Amino acid sequence: MMRNDDQTLSRTDKSPEGPGGDPEGGPSYVSRGTLFLAATPIGNTGDASARLTSLLESADLVAAEDTRRLYDLANRLGVRVSGRVVAYHDHNEDHMADPILDQVRDGACALVVSDAGMPTINDPGMAIVRRAIERGVPVTCAPGPSAVLDALALSGLPTDRFCYEGFLPRRHGERIRHLRSLRNEPRTMVFYETTHRIDQAMQDLDEAFGADRLMALCRELTKDHEQIRRGTIAQIIESMAQDPPRGEMVLVVAGAGSDQVQAGTSEVLTDHALAVMARQRAEEEGVRIKDAIARVVAEHPLPDGSLPNRKKVYAATLEDRRED
Ligand code: SAM
Q1: Taking 80 as the threshold, does the pLDDT of residue 126 lie above it?
Q2: Range of the domain at 66
Q3: Measured from the CB, is residue 252 less than 6 Å from ligand 1?
Q4: Which residue of 2, 78, 113, 140 is 20 to 30 Å from 67, comparing CA positions?
Q5: 142 in ligand 1 pocket by Cβ < 6 Å?
Q6: For position 8, what pLDDT does the model report?
Q7: In DSSP terms, which residues pair with 112 in a beta bridge?
Q8: 117 lines ligand 1 (CB under 6 A)
């Protein structure tokens, strides 16, 4: 395998009539003067498309998130990467975009690939796409594997409307606020997660969406040990205690059905309204007013996921009592 790593870009001297093209006579796989994004397999090399293979073989320039992984993929596919290879990752994508696009303007076919799946989906690529659009440089995509759609399709949850949420915030406070802000989201939600944060993430899903919300934990997609666990949040947590999940994973969570949308939470309740609810709750459940306020407040997050101020709600209950 010829290695051709290079951090500096230079003009390509390849002929504009380079190789490529569909042997069946369909649209050609490779076009000169075009920037291509291409999806790479997320586990199973057999998912590489003929178009990806063709682009790897004949692009003048390949911008790869990790050049070693690019060559590893090319080896597994039995492909020789003939173009110049440059590293293109989160830390350099802003300043690499223009030099790559200059070459495309000069007639090169440039290919952007990430380590796995679709570039731009929690991976590098967005900076160069935006810049190509700004500069009017032709940009297209050779689509293929991406963990979002694979997990969604296998989850068994509604696919007609969904939202991709990427990775949850690392910090507990931010994560729980974010999840609470999604409590009434009606669309199926897709989250990426890592092995070392999955336990905490599941506890937070439980707190934000309730134990009965349906979900799927999809791990090691397309690989030999692919596994999909489907059930309520409580059931998935229970299964994790028996058999801790390992490897790469995606969480797919059902949206709030109309029965799960809590009355009033789509609008912001006043402190007074929360105080009235808390007083009722304290009476019905025989708990202290401060505990009732804590419960009511937790059930009515503000649109940004933060909780209403308990002290203000408490002051409103005192005022309410005085008025009685
Ligand atoms: N660009 C990729 C895509 O299109 O799916 C995503 C890259 S992101 C840095 C990596 C995350 O994607 C992993 O932490 C995991 O959540 C998810 N992922 C990637 N491959 C996966 C697989 N084979 N099975 C389950 N999840 C996977």
Answers
A1: yes
A2: 34-145
A3: no
A4: 140
A5: no
A6: 40
A7: 37, 63
A8: yes
- Ligand 1, residue 193: give the atom nearest the CA: 16
For ligand 1, whether the C-beta of 55 sits within 6 Å is no
Span 41-56, mean pLDDT? 97
Q: What is the CATH number of the domain that holds 226?
A: 3.30.950.10
Two tokens, residue 104:
């495309």
Structural domain total, the chain: 3
Whether residue 5 lies inside any domain: the answer is: no
Model confidence at 266: pLDDT above 70? no
Give yes or no for residue 5 having a pLDDT over 50. no
Q: Is residue 26 in a domain?
A: no
CA 37 vs. chain centroid, Å, equals: 17
- pLDDT (average), residues 96-111: 98
Asked if residue 137 and residue 156 are part of one domain, the reply reads no
Does residue 301 surpass a pLDDT of 60?
Answer: yes
Q: Answer yes or no: do 132 and 164 share one domain.
A: no
C-beta of 227 in contact with ligand 1 (< 6 A): no
Residues 91 and 138 in one domain: yes
Mean pLDDT of the region 228-255: 97
Residues 59 and 128 in one domain: yes
Q: What is the CATH number of the domain that holds 131?
A: 3.40.1010.10
Mutate-to-test residue for ligand 1 from 248, 251, 252, highest number of ligand atoms within 8 A of CB = 248
Ligand 1: which of 40, 42, 49 to mutate, judged by most atoms within 8 Å of the beta carbon? 42
Ligand 1 atom nearest residue 43's Cα = 23
